[in-house]
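Lecture 7 notes: from sequence to structure.
We start with the chain below.
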Amino acid sequence: MELRVLRYFLAVVRMQSISAAAEELHITQPTLSRQLMELEEELGAKLFDRGRKNRRVALTEAGKRLHRQAEEIVALADKTLRSFQAPQEEISGEIAIGGGETDTMRLVARAARALTREHPNIRYHLYSGNAEDVTERLDKGLLDFGILIEPVSLERYDYIQLPAADTWGLLMRRDHPLARKQVICPGDLLGVPLLVSRQRMVDNTFSGWLGQSVRCLRQVGTYNLIYNAARMVEEGVGCALALDKLVNTAGTELCFRPLTPKLESRLNLVWKKDPVFSQAAAAFLKKFQEMRPRESADRGGGERTGPKKA
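Predicted structure tokens for the same chain:
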């Protein structure tokens, strides 16, 4: 399977048309059609539904599986190529960072700002997702670093535990009965329609806080990023168990109340063990280590020094 053909495949998916993709790729339509048919023969699966009346091609189930994998393969190939094309006399290149929604991303932003002043040709690519999304992309080499919100397994990674912690609470409409309270107790949540984090290990955290299984809660939905969940809260679908400072409630119909007893999640900057870092990624880690407050010394973590460079 050639990388070039995967790029052809992705162009057809993006344009939803073989003729339009051929024009964008500067090849003839018969040539592109032949390449796609050979790809289907190689995989032993039909990738496109070509019998649609509007002549727009649609992916079959096999095509949908290949689409995601092809995007990852091409992205990793491009990332690798760019790391070798960066001029050696000046640190440049790209740094890919993924993380869940957290105000602590400011620490990453400050390190990036300081590094950009020294090396203005570095570019940053940010990916938002929950712990499962971020670790999957880390493992595949699509990300250099991740910001992971605990609880999360860190056995496969080196990491720096950050000095900040995010506070859990309840995001709700201001006219909700619980909005009159300053803090939310475990018993307050019983019977309340709730939107909860999709991160699997969070259930254990809330079970400990509740003193019983989270199954006792009335869960009406899940989310991996709070922005869209906040829209559901605004429309009265339910309240959201969420971290503080992620939704600006000033001047809106929403409000946030912290849980009591206080429930916090710590955060970690993580990267793969024994990484082969690009110059840019190695420079970022060094800058982040220089800038982090002294009180953020590793706690049982595996900060590694002297990572390899590509």
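Points to note: The CA atoms of residues 83 and 189 lie 50 Å apart. The first helix runs from residue 3 to 15.
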